[in-house]
Amino acid sequence: MIIEKIELNYFRNYEHLSFEPHEGINLFFGKNGSGKTNLLEAIHYCALGKSHRVSQDAPVIFAGEKSGSCSVSVRGKWGKSEIGVRLQQGEARGKSVSIDRKKVTKLSEMMGVLRCVIFSPEDLNLIKEGPSDRRRFLDMMISQISRSYFVALQQYRLAMEQRNAILRNSRALQQAPDPMIEDFEASMADQAGVIYRERKRIISMMAERCGDIYQEICGKKDETFRVQYHSFLKKEENPAELMRMLRESRLDDQRQGLTSVGPHRDDLMLSLNTKSMKMFASQGQMRTAALALKLSQLHILTEISGESPVLLLDDVMSELDLQRRMNLLRDIGSIQTFITFSDEGDLDASQQYRTYAVHSAEGKADIEEIKSGPEMVRAMLTEPDFS
Ligand SMILES: Nc1ncnc2c1ncn2[C@@H]1O[C@H](COP(=O)(O)OP(=O)(O)O)[C@@H](O)[C@H]1O
Ligand SMILES: [Mg+2]
To answer: Residue 315 C-alpha to ligand 2 middle, in angstroms?
Structure first.
């Protein structure tokens, strides 16, 4: 799919921006803090209704304004669509999403209209940090190809919040939990079935691809990277078993005021030559593994949906050595790509690019196409002011 137009109004440090990107590779150069990541974040908003870096919407609205918005016009194999996300704070606080200028009632309706994969330096957290980063990665990926998965996640979370509230309440009153807890547990078990099946399907696709991608990137045949699903269910159990597990853990859960079993505790187990990646791998191996996970995401989204997602590469080029940069750029070939740099970067001159400078003056960002080649880019990056 291709983004034909991006419009921002009071989004982060953009007051107004209307921008028609190239169908191929778009390169954005600019100093730190100029607004490069903000632009990619806006694209992410239009794909998933939220930021890839913060969980709240308020910080995204231009400082001092009550509302902000971003929209993209997308051309995919099913035709054209315009997706808009509007964020408001104050009394009318909230988020509204429109598709082709009609407000949608459920966030799930926007899933899959624009698909994107974002690479950023924080991808290393997928290896280094706890399970919640890996679950978020899985959830964002699967939601883009399965609306029923996204809906199941939402409903599972709602039912779990209700269950937790009942447990905390009964703890405070020193009483047995309200019998309504049964209904919430039944709902959790139903949704857990959908979540479990989809995760199992996608992780097995990922497992098939990640090992080869890893070896391709590092060029070493003796390093075996493996991905496995670590689920709340033991191998053969039925997701409906969650009902029994929840009932059995009620007393413990009441003490802790939370739910201790279920897909919200799932994880991806990552290993290198059968040893835990997090405990044993070097920094370089972790980077390669993170890149392999993201590239497998790109392959799987393309395979399942039958078209390439939009690719967002935020400041990752300087982390890869020249050879890897070239390989990555060659691989992405015909995918519409947005790449940000805070340095000039070494680029393969045979590729077709369009180059832009992102600059910000008095707290407001703007984007300008550069036609004069890399020397100009270098000059712009080292000069104190762009104006
Ligand atoms: N809500 C906001 N309103 C105005 N400016 C913002 C807002 N949020 C972030 N900024 C500004 O955006 C800049 C960071 O933009 P970012 O895209 O992350 O930079 P980079 O080009 O380094 O990727 C900072 O200067 C920050 O002050
Ligand atoms: Mg940035």
So the answer is: 6
